[in-house]
Amino acid sequence: MTIEKMHAVVFDKFGEPNVLYIGNVDKPIPGPGQILVKVHATALNRADTLQRRGKYPPPAGDSTIMGLEIAGLVAAVGKNVENFKLDDKVFGLVGGGGYAEYCLLDAQMAMKMPSNWDFTYAAAIPEVFLTANETAFELGQLQTGQDLLLHAAASGVGTTIIQMAKNSGANVYATVGSEEKATFVLQLGATAVANYKTTDFLPWIMQQTNQRGVDVVEDFVGKDNFTRNLAALKAEGRLIQVATMSGATTEIDLRTLMSKRLHLIGSVMRSRSLVDKRAITKRFIDRWWDKLIAGEIKPTIDKVYDWHDVIAAHERMESNANIGKIVLKIT
Ligand SMILES: NC(=O)c1ccc[n+]([C@@H]2O[C@H](COP(=O)([O-])OP(=O)(O)OC[C@H]3O[C@@H](n4cnc5c(N)ncnc54)[C@H](OP(=O)(O)O)[C@@H]3O)[C@@H](O)[C@H]2O)c1
Fold first, then answer.
1. pTM for this one?
2. pLDDT mean over 286-301
C-alpha cells in the first residue's frame, strides 16, 4: 500500500524557534474509533515550545508532530465511528499531530462545531478549556462564593479560568507580569489583580481577603511561588499544581500541610490515558457546553498566524507577550 504524504511543521534538531519548518511526512490513516481531520486551525501550547526544545517528549504512541488541539473537517472515518460523517466541522483535543494538514482525532473526544464558529475560534478551545475545568473545578472543587488565587492569569488557561470562575460566582485574585495584562484580566472579570514583578503576592492576597487566605490556588509557576502559595491557603485549601515554569524542585515544611489540613494536587493532561481524556472531555461538555454555545465563556485569542509563520508564533509565546491563545491557520 502506498502511504500518502502531507505537509506538517517539523524540526530535525532541538532548539530555538528557527529550527521549525514545513516538511513532508506520512499522512495518518484512521484506526477503529478514530476520525481523520483535514486541519484548518490548531493552537499553540507551552508543551509545543518545550517539545521543540527537547524538554517534553510526546508520550509513547502519540504523534511526534507538535499540536495538541485542532479544528477542521472530517476527511475520513475509521471503523466503528457512527456519530461523524465526511465534511462535519469538528474540534477537539489530540495527543499530538495538530501542526499538520491532517490529524487523527478520537471520535469520543471530537466535538461538533456550531456552524457560526470559525476554525480559528474552535481551535483555541480544547486544551485550555478542558484543563481549566479539570483543574480548578474538578480537582480544585472551586465553588460559588469561594476565593481563588490564580497565577499567570493572562495565559490561555488563566483567561479561561477567570471566565469560568466568574460564571460560577467565585472570586478570582489574579497575578500577572505586566500592566497591560493586569488591565485585561480585570476587564475579563478578575476581582483584583497584582503585578507579581512589583508586588509580593502573599501580603497582597492576605490583605485582599482580610487575612483569611483563599480556598484554592491554581499555580503554573512552581518553585518561586510554592511556599507563599501554601501560606496563602486557608484551612482545608487546595493547591492545584499545573506547571513549573520557574522550576520544579522546592522545599516544604510539612507542618504547614498538617496544621491547615491542606490538599496538594498535581495534574498533567497530556500523559493521561485515552479513557481518562474521554472522561475529561465529557465532564467539560456536561458542565460548560451550553455556556460555550451561548457565548457566556469564550476563548481569548491573542493572535492568529498563518502556519508558514510558525517561528514568529513560537517566539511570541516564549517572550510571554501573549494574552490568551496563539492560533495557527493551516493554509
Ligand atoms: N498540566 C496540564 O494539564 C496543563 C495543560 C495546559 C497548560 N499547562 C501549563 O499551564 C501553563 C499555562 O499554559 P498556557 O498555554 O495557557 O500558557 P501561556 O498562554 O503561554 O502563558 C504563560 C504565561 O505564564 C507567565 N509566566 C511564564 N514564566 C513565568 C514565571 N517564571 N513566573 C511567573 N509567570 C510566568 C507569563 O505571563 P506573565 O507575563 O504574566 O508572567 C506567560 O505569558 C503552561 O506552563 C502550560 O505548560 C498545563
1. 0.97
2. 98
